[in-house]
Design goal:
about 160 residues; alpha/beta; 6 strands; about 20% strand; globular
């Protein structure tokens, strides 16, 4: 099964945790890492190229650090442009049956996302899952790394999450 990790990070140059995660993912078979922060540093998304990458994947992962209870803005831009092009394009069923998962890193403790801020992590991620489900993708349980710190990353758990179908 071919897995495509679509990654973005508002502060990519300063990232430690996600750089370590992605570097470790390079060792996995059938995994393509697509860092849209570096690929499109000018902000211009090549929609046909994105659609081609998606067409080759069996599983799609959005990986990002959660900022202010949401995705980095460039991932939302990617969703708006690419998913809209698919929905209104020639192959509306491009994503039908593909697996979809979110892997996210968070600076806060897991208890910060238990609902006492009026939303759980699951609730915060719902709009992304709903958008991809609307496009025909099948849900795979998200994987979250709380209190993300490069010194205590469980790379085996991260790799297992990527392999989860």
């Amino acid at each position: 099964m071919k897995t495509l990790i679509i990654f973005t990070h508002t502060f990519w140059k300063d990232s430690k945790v996600n750089k370590a995660l992605l570097e470790s993912a390079k060792s996995l078979d059938d995994v393509t890492i697509h860092n849209i922060s570096t690929t499109y540093s000018d902000g211009n998304i090549n929609i046909p190229a994105e659609i081609e990458l998606l067409s080759q994947a069996d599983k799609i992962i959005f990986q990002f650090p959660l900022f202010w209870f949401s995705t980095p803005s460039f991932l939302k831009e990617w969703q708006d442009r690419v998913l809209t092009a698919i929905l209104y394009g020639e192959n509306k069923d491009l994503l039908k049956g593909k697996k979809f998962q979110i892997i996210t890193t968070l600076g806060g403790a897991e208890s910060s996302y238990d609902g006492h801020h009026r939303a759980t992590l699951e609730e915060l991620l719902k709009p992304i899952y709903h958008a991809l489900k609307y496009c025909g993708c099948e849900y795979v349980e998200h994987y979250a790394i709380f209190q993300a710190n490069v010194d205590n990353l469980d790379l085996n758990a991260y790799h297992n999450a990527i392999k989860l179908y």
